[in-house]
Structures are given as structure tokens and as C-alpha cells.
Amino acid sequence: MKKVLVVLMALIVSIAFAGTSFAAKKKKGYVEGTAGAGSITGVVSLKGNTPAPIMEDLSKGKNVEFCITHPDAKGNIRARVKVTTAGGKLKDTVVFIEKIATGKPWGDLGKAHFDFKKCDIVQKVLAVRKPSKAEAKANGTKAEGGVMTVTNNDPEILHNPHGYSIAGANRKTLFNKPLPSQGDIARVTKNIKRLKQKKDKHFFLQCDQHNFMEADARIVWNPYYSITGADGVFKIDGIPAGKYRVTAWHPYAGESSQDVTVGAGAAKANFTLVAKKLKASPPPDK
């Protein structure tokens, strides 16, 4: 009888330990802590000719009379710029540290709020993170929008934001929310809870009613990133000392990576991406 009890106790301890180990493995990921004293600064350039804008014929779509009021429209034609450069410097590049265990808190970093306005999406390139369980459950409020929202700013225009995780030609729908009226907000924090670190890198947003309305975001797994401005400059701060793999990513100019060693001051890292021929985005999935 004693032997049986000993075996049972050993089995219970073994199961409990296995459960703890599994939970510990499951919780792996970035842990908010204290910011470091280091930073990475640099410039992202584009090699080659900047791709010409896509000349969109708005007369072939819906709500023509309203959509041609966009400030970039000339008659029925609107130039859609997907790659923006000035003096060879590349705007809207997300530069980020690939892996880091702990460091500065997220704060508002990794939150993506998109505005649909004048048949366009105001924010062209952002970065977005996976929400916590609590954030996904709350799904944003009127006072605090959550990790991701999409707002219809157009009067009497139906918009239908359709969010995807894309990898090459493959697209996975994350949400599809009609916004029939001005001021309507799609609170989609809970919908992006399904993001997986090993699978999801590129978020793509499109309007099902006006498929020329597009925006992109890099899915990030820590708050150490920066998005280049018109001068191509970026700065990532609050980095603990160490050696990191840093990547510069643009949705239509590819990516480039390099190892950067960070100390107590500013480390330098410049990137060059290569111009590519632009392809029209496929129509929204049904």
C-alpha cells in the first residue's frame, strides 16, 4: 500500500511539474521592464528609381462624385503613391529589433488607429502588436480605443474595412466590418488576438467598397521600432546594452537586416532597400 501511495505521489508531482513547465513555455515572449540607455539611429535609402504612382480611375468605382473630392484627384484620376522618397531617402519604413527579451514598457507603441477619409486611408504605414488577453476581452472603449480601430470619417459613404495577415500571395482574413455612417468605428482589437509570432508579419487593410483604399502595418513583437519620416531618418531608443538583429521593412520595397551592437550611447545603422516594380493589389476576398 505504501508503494502505491509513493508511486501516486510521484505521479502527481510529475504532472504538476510538467504543467508548470508547459505554462512557462507558453508565457514566453516580450516582458515589460525598464528602458536601457542605448539607442540606434540611422537613415533608410532606396536604391533605384522610385516606382511611379498608380493612376487610379475613380470613375470605375463607387461613390464617384464624393471620391473625386480627394485633394490628390485631378478629374476622375487620383495618383496613389505607395513608395515615397526624397533625395533617395525612403519614407514609411519600419525599422525594428527582431528579438529582445525585456526592456521598456509598450505604452502606446504598437497601437494602430486608421482613419477612412475622402475615400482614402490617412495612415499608410504603421506598426501593430498582438493585444493581451485583457485588451482583447475589453476590445476598446469610447475613451480608449484599444490596440486597433478603424474610423469612417466620410458622410453618407459606406466603407467596409477588411483586415488581413498576408504572406506572399496568401491572405488570412482577420476582420471584415461594415461602417455605414460617418463616425462609425470598427473596434477590432479582439480580432487581431489570433496573430502568431512565427506566422504573421504583414498586416494589410483594404476597403471592400473601394478597393483602392489601402494601408499596411508591420506586426511587431516588442516596442523597439521606429518608422522613418520623409527624410528617411529613424531612431529607436531605450535599448538595453547588447547585440541585436535589426531589420528595416517597407511593404513595397522589401527588407534588409544587420547586426547592431548597442552600448550606453547611440549606435549607428543605415539601410538600403531596392526599388521593385509595383503590382496592383488583388480585389478583396469574398
Molecular structure report:
It is a single chain. By secondary structure, the protein is mainly beta. The protein folds into two domains: 30-109 and 221-281, Immunoglobulin-like (Sandwich), CATH 2.60.40; 111-219, Immunoglobulin-like (Sandwich), CATH 2.60.40.420. The chain has helices at 2-26, 64-67, 133-138, and strands at residues 31-32, 38-47, 54-57, 73-74, 77-80, 85-86, 89-90, 94-97, 102-103, 112-116, 125-128, 148-152, 161-167, 170-176, 185-187, 202-207, 214-219, 225-227, 233-239, 242-250, 254-262, 266-268, 271-274. The protein is globular.
What are the SSEs and their pairings?
Blueprint: H1 2-26, E1 31-32, E2 38-47, E3 54-57, H2 64-67, E4 73-74, E5 77-80, E6 85-86, E7 89-90, E8 94-97, E9 102-103, E10 112-116, E11 125-128, H3 133-138, E12 148-152, E13 161-167, E14 170-176, E15 185-187, E16 202-207, E17 214-219, E18 225-227, E19 233-239, E20 242-250, E21 254-262, E22 266-268, E23 271-274
Parallel strand pairs: 1-9, 2-22, 2-23, 10-12, 11-17
Antiparallel strand pairs: 2-19, 3-5, 4-5, 6-7, 8-18, 8-20, 12-15, 13-14, 13-16, 16-17, 20-21
